Amino acid sequence: MTAAGRARTAWNRAAPTLRVERQIIRDGVPALACADEVGRGSLSGPVTVGVVVVTAESRAVPQGVRDSKLLSAAERERLAPLIRRWAACWSVGHAEPAEIDAYGIIAALRLAAHRAIAGLDTAPGALLLDGNHDYVTTPAQDTLLGPPTVLDVVPPVRTIVKADLRCAAVAAASILAKTERDAIMTRLHDDHPAYGWAENKGYSAPEHLAALRRLGPTRHHRTSWRLPGVEADAADAAGGGAGGPASGDALLPGEPLTLDVAG
What we know:
Layout: H1 3-13, H2 19-26, E1 31-38, E2 47-55, H3 73-86, E3 89-95, H4 97-103, H5 105-118, E4 126-130, E5 157-160, H6 163-166, H7 168-191, H8 197-200, H9 206-215, H10 232-236, E6 260-262
Parallel strand pairs: 1-4, 4-5
Antiparallel strand pairs: 1-2, 2-3, 3-6
Helix pairs in contact: 3-7, 4-5
């Protein structure tokens, strides 16, 4: 392994801290929300945003918290209840495939984030977001055809590249988002076992792609996307494809969506 590769590996293995979060709190933010998303690149299922709130009273994050992608499923499941007890408050929001198709993935991410923020017991003074793109703040050019309004006021957003690796509360949010979305995909697998969602969670694994070619998309697929192996006319049928449920079963844009929320 090269020196650069060893440095990247060491970075990935290093435990995240609350150093950044505590500095923002000292700068005058009494309650800081920290967020991360999962499911952006999936072919089916929701896009999900987890949010964890920390305050000056927050203690050290539970031992073992890392970016969810660096943990096994068993480790994430063990840590999720510890994180829920540790956080000042927390919430998870989702945007469904029909909403992704209607509004686009970035607007759907914003909708999921707004639903998560709306579910918090404490209104945050700011939001720390993984990445370099603020998908949470409502753009000035948002149109009447955009997603439904969930929040009247969006907290100021600060983005940090690799925050899920550096910032413990963002890593904790990633674990809550990942475990809740994985549970959704596992439940959906029971109705559509051919697609292998219990294992691939809606991503483009060989079993999933083979089922798409054989059966076409379900109402849980993002049919506005260019799904591998799916004819254009099948993609135009909202939930079309042999063996898939009728499109009338799909969640329509703007319909209420139940949040998994706890204080």
